[in-house]
Amino acid sequence: MPWWWNYVFVSLVVGWVIGNFFGKRDAQKTSDQQIYRLKIAHTVDRKYYLDAVGRTVANEMMRRDHSRYLDAKVRAIGEVERISKLTKEACEEELVVFARKHPNLNDFDPFHELRDHILFSDNLTSWGDIEGQYLNLVQFSAMQWVLDENWRGPPTNANDLEHAREYAKRIDDTRLWLRMKVAIDDWRRYRKDAGEPFEGRDFSLHPIMKDGEHRYAVKFKNPVEYGLFRARTGADDYDYAYARSDVLFEKETGVGYQRISGVTLPSPPESF
After folding, report:
1. Beta-carbon-side half-sphere exposure of residue 50 (alpha carbons within 13 Å)
2. How many CB atoms within 10 Å of residue 249?
3. Can you tell me the distance from the alpha carbon of 272 to that of 266, in angstroms, rounded to the nearest whole number?
4. 3-class secondary-structure state, position 149
5. CB count, 10 Å around CB of 50?
6. How far is CA 251 from the centre of its chain?
7. Whole-prediction pTM value?
8. What pLDDT does 262 receive?
9. If we measure between CA atoms, which residue out of 73, 244, 80, 81 comes closest to residue 165?
10. Each residue of 196-240: pLDDT tens digit?
11. In the chain, what are the domain boundaries?
12. For the chain, what is the largest distance between any 2 Cα atoms, rounded to a whole number of angstroms?
């Protein structure tokens, strides 16, 4: 065998060793990157799941009693602020205690065993259950936010609360508008004289003069609310305005407006 074959053999061995070393290192690096990406994806998936559950529970609370929901929201924000001030060590200790009581994510989900055609409201039998699950979910999400850099943002904050309060006012105004529409329909159906006060099932109505216009003041009994109704007629349309008012019917905040064209409706009083 020629002497130079020794150099070829040594070169091949050295090349194999070097290639194997760097190849394994690159493979390990690629594997670590994949694990890291899977960890991020898992974190994001858990957060999206809990966000969806929290949104559903909060919607049901808002629909049932938005005043109590806002109270729960205030307590939830207080918990988020408290947890955000914990050190990671203290937060981890609190999470361990919390996880013993709620070992699974679906412990926060009152709908996880619900058939897809069942209404959410039929699965929530008590306010205490739904409120407790909402607060537990917020606490867990807040702890994850403190401990996991990939957990994107806290579960709620003061801006959410302010928006919820404004949205609750819109809900109240919409409900008042619908109550007033029903009351006006009853008044038209059963009135004897458009210029006299009228007593309905859960409301009373009487004419007043406000800002140079004839209006109808409406007082509802349960819950107590006050509204003003104005109607104008044109050549071929009706213009109705509904407003929230106070006990003296001095203030006026619009809650609804309706214009109907090309149809025949019961005529408003001649004074309008």
Report:
1. 29
2. 19
3. 13
4. coil
5. 20
6. 30
7. 0.72
8. 47
9. 73
10. 788 988 999 998 887 777 889 999 998 999 999 987 765 556 678
11. 4-156, 172-261
12. 126
